[in-house]
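The methods section describes the discrete structure representation at length, but only in general terms. Since the whole study asks how a given chain folds, the encoding of that fold should be made plain. An entry of this sort, consisting of the sequence and the corresponding backbone structure tokens, reads as follows:

. . .
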Amino acid sequence: MSILTARRITQLFFFALFLWFCIVTTLGERWWQLRGWPVNWLLELNPLTGLGVLLATRTVYAGLLWGVVTIALTLVLGRFFCGWVCPFGALQQAVGYLGKRGLNRARKIARNRPHPAQRIKYWLLLFMLAAAAAGMLRWVLESARHGGWWFWALLVALPAVLALLAALRVVRLRRDAAWAAGGALALGLLLEWLLPRGGWLVPSLQTGLLDPIALVHRSVNLVLLPLADGPLKVTAALPRVYPGAALIGMFFLLFTLLSLRVPRFYCRFICPLGALFGLLARWSVWRIGKGQTPCTDCRRCEADCEGACTPTEALITSECVLCLNCLDACRHGIMGYRLQTSAAGEQLLPDLQRRQVVTAIATGLVAAPLLRLDGMAGADWNPAVIRPPGALDEAAFLARCIKCGQCMRVCPTNVVHPATLQSGLEGLWTPMLNFRVGTSGCQFNCVACSRVCPTAALRPISVAERMGTGAYAEEGPLRIGMAFVDHGRCLPWAMDTPCIVCQENCPVSPKAIFTRDVLQPVRDGAFALHAVNGDRLSAADADWVPGRFATGDYFCRVDQMAPRPIVANTERSLTLGDPAAWPQHPAAGRSAEILVRLQQPYVDPHRCIGCGVCEHECPVQGRRAIRVTAENESRNRAHRLTT
């Protein structure tokens, strides 16, 4: 078996495994549905996820330690993850192969020449890690405040260490650039020290926007599988919808189709995970390169190079994705995968200019504070953004969520959806609840979304904690929000129409929604009695719809006599029930009126958990007459309405 065949089989295996994990992230009773399958394994193998969470929170969820294995293998083998494991990389490579078919060697070589834009992914990586690292820097600052010498030692040591690394060529930056980078970080710490308590260093984890593993999970979970489920019904009997999924699908399609023009377009120019592996691969033990045998300069190796790493010249080590096409193309055995560096020389990284590096880091540090000037993570929070059960406080949630869509995929009622701008730019594609769609609200005994979150942005909770039973009985059930009745749209409140749908469907026991009965006169319901025949009353000028008042919600009252229920009606007559209510029949000519009993709903804030079943079932379409907001949610005491 050739090495290329082995690589293709491996790519197909991991791509099929990825699709399988997406499919089995489904609640149900079948053997292939969620039954302990490690559905987050590829996300956990991704070291960018663990590194981002570590920098933002100074903690790592246990599963993310798989990323250490990937880092260790990269230091030995090079960028094997990109060329052999990554499902999005495999998809791009397949599309790129289709785009190159029919081209001669010269045109293929032209497409695989390195481009200055390949530096963009390193800028994006530095920007995203700096945005996350604000949390780590804040922790360093707090430590410095408790022990003053730490702060001053950091100011001196940080630029010195960076300058030393540059001098030793560990990082490809001139000494003045290293001092500039260290000075920028030190200045940030100094500003934080001098600014009032609270400061401006806040972490924000945005790696998931462009991380290829999170991107492909999000695209398949929210776009491709719902499209397939429409006709095939593989994972859902009813079509699943995700407002905002069109934008996700457009980005996925764009990045995929661009590989028709430039092989592995996303890997070369955008992928921050590839940039991280590129930084690590410069220290790899095994590497691609030329041997000592003189090269014939046929450039066959460059025609199918997936990374645009110039294997015929000084190899750009960080760009090699280990596709191994050069080994297969070389007819003279010059290209090899060995312990030695390439005989033609190596270029460790693309030319990263100091201003670009400093700008990327500085922009990342101030990105979250700038985004939070809108106050959506604080005082001006949007009550329409209801997070799934188990969500951390908003600031901590935004420091962990990678927008992978796993919680949205596993939700059995399809009420967890990607946010667009409801929670600001920082919250783009993070999960929020939308009770207008799906098959029901957020089920009271369901904790599936919290159990599949790979970063614990939704902390894993138990059914007992969710329902407030057992050890959690004193704390009560977990609340994700609270329902409010809109009196201007509610049928019993605004339109004299009987309705108790919200109260009937409330899953809490005792129910959080209760009603109070009132009797209201029906419009044009007053009439004069024409004749009385036992329990049957007639009106001379009435024009009622037959059976309209026979629902059990309508009553007839004559003068000041007690109302009696209407059990049947014709165009001009009413038949009454409960004959004992009137000791004697009224005489003809007396005034009578028809009343409707309205059961007007109220919400008990001490019992409502914000599950949204009432909003989903409300018969008022469009903007519901009862709506859930994030007020009174358990995750933030400042939002509570009850003690």
